[in-house]
Amino acid sequence: MAKAFGQPTDSNRLLSSLSPALRSLLEPHLHLTRFERQSVLQYPQETIGCVVFPVGCIGSMVAVGNDDRRIEVGLFGFEGMSGASVVMGVDTSPLEVFIQVAGDGYAIDTDVFRKLLRQHDELAAHFTRYIHCLNIQTTQTALSNGQAKLEERLARWLLMCHDRVPGDRISLTHEFLSVMLGVRRAGVTVGTHLLEGKGLIRAERGIISVLDREGLEKEARGSYGVAEKEYLRLFGKDRIER
Amino acid sequence: MAKAFGQPTDSNRLLSSLSPALRSLLEPHLHLTRFERQSVLQYPQETIGCVVFPVGCIGSMVAVGNDDRRIEVGLFGFEGMSGASVVMGVDTSPLEVFIQVAGDGYAIDTDVFRKLLRQHDELAAHFTRYIHCLNIQTTQTALSNGQAKLEERLARWLLMCHDRVPGDRISLTHEFLSVMLGVRRAGVTVGTHLLEGKGLIRAERGIISVLDREGLEKEARGSYGVAEKEYLRLFGKDRIER
DNA sequence: CCCTCTCCGTGCGATACTGTACCAAGGGGA
DNA sequence: TCCCCTTGGTACAGTATCGCACGGAGAGGG
Which residues form the HTH crp-type domain (chains A, B) (predicted)? Predict the structure, then answer.
């Protein structure tokens, strides 16, 4: 089975699925920017300075609690955007958003973006539908966190990441994964071995390669796929590219 | 410490915090209806027929997965509404929404509601801000499911329910709670004993009474409160009531 | 009053995952 | 080449929760 959103391209799918008229409203204000790993797009409860439409990078949204409790609640790449709260008409969020995989993205100033959203209902409606998909992703994360075993959550996460990255090699450490999933680093090691034992992935130092997507999806036992299907339903057919 | 949204009244706070002009747009279309326990407002992937603004009832949003996996991802009472997806411009959702505590609510036909949202930006913006709060609630649920112990999740849930119910007595069974939290029924029994042992609640057959809110909040270790604070920030001061 | 049904309390072994700790293997820089 | 730092593998005891199962207590109807 192929990646959920097709192969990543050098454009952002949320932008390219806009009608030309709407896209031309945004284009003058988009700045193609390189985002390095670990750079933070939003700090909890701080004003959101800009909104990012990734093309090559991947962003991660993390809920933070008391005493170092943190867990990833969602992630987005070339199919999505940061700054869900801005689309919702609010200028802060309790989430932390940071770059998990370095790459390019189109940035737009929050104030400019908000103004355009207010002036053009169709534009707002478009991004609002995306936020709907993102919300579904979060609900699936909640389900997964509550009911799935470590390997299942691991499989889900790898699939989501694989969808948003070119090729089959995902560059990450067990340590990083453990923070995202909110589990022990050693637990991730054991989990990857399990998936590797079934021939679904191959693990090298700092890299996990996806060998068998379909197998991973089976392994995820239904915790993967719902949000992706909804996205395809709503944004499936790109309007004329370029 | 008092309930997060103040005492429940015989009105819906989301409606009463609208400006009179906007409220008058909705009022002709609102039908005060009695909702019984267990009645379903939305089935997964089925068209959403109406949107409900509870006054006395409480609704529960549940994510459903493979083989009986289900878990509550959010809940709403007189401070909120059902049909988040409708506000987002989509007419289905993968969630199941049902009535958890019987009571009255204002129902409005989805098509009528959607039409009003499209025609009046301010109206849409108002409800969109609420959905933002609901999303935060879901992210906190994801955090809680992933990192909190049973008692903590239990404390969080009781607080959220307490906020939306008049008085301090919550009518529910361990069985029900176990389904909501996605844990064993027997686990809930043990958990309630633990909270009861600390003097935070009192459990009778089919009823849990909240004795010490502040204690419960401490027990929840930060998994309660974020979404509630955001709601108060955005909807804190009611506009002129009536 | 008894029967029945719902709800709650408890026990027991099994399992998933934790916290901690230590070591080994890659890999880049001096 | 040596060193050091990052990353990954493994172990072990401890804890949270599970699945299952059984018994008992409340409560309402006949």
Answer: 152-218
Indicate the domain borders of chain A. 1-147, 149-222
Tens digits of residue pLDDT in A76-129: 999 999 999 999 999 999 999 999 999 999 999 999 999 999 999 999 999 999
How much is the pTM?
Answer: 0.95
How close does chain B come to A184, measured CA to CA in Å? 11
Scanning B20-103, the segments in alpha helix (DSSP H) are 20-26, 84-87
The reply to whether A183 has its C-beta less than 7 Å from any atom of strand C is yes
Protein footprint on strand C: which nucleotides are under 7 Å from a CB?
6-11, 16-21, 26-27
Mean pLDDT of B60-85: 96
Identify the architecture of domain B1-148 in CATH: Sandwich (2.60)
**Domain A149-222 of CATH type 1.10.10.60:** no
Hey, what CATH topology would domain A1-147 get?
Jelly Rolls (2.60.120)
Instruction: Classify each residue of B118-150 as buried b or exposed e, where b means 16 or more C-beta atoms within 10 Å of its C-beta.
Output: eeeeebbbbbbbbbbbbbbbbbbbbbbbbbbeb
Quote the pLDDT of residue B68: 86
| B14 CB neighbour count, 10 Å cutoff | 22
Q: Do domains B1-148 and B149-222 have the same CATH topology?
A: no
Query: Tokens for B72?
Result: 């509550």
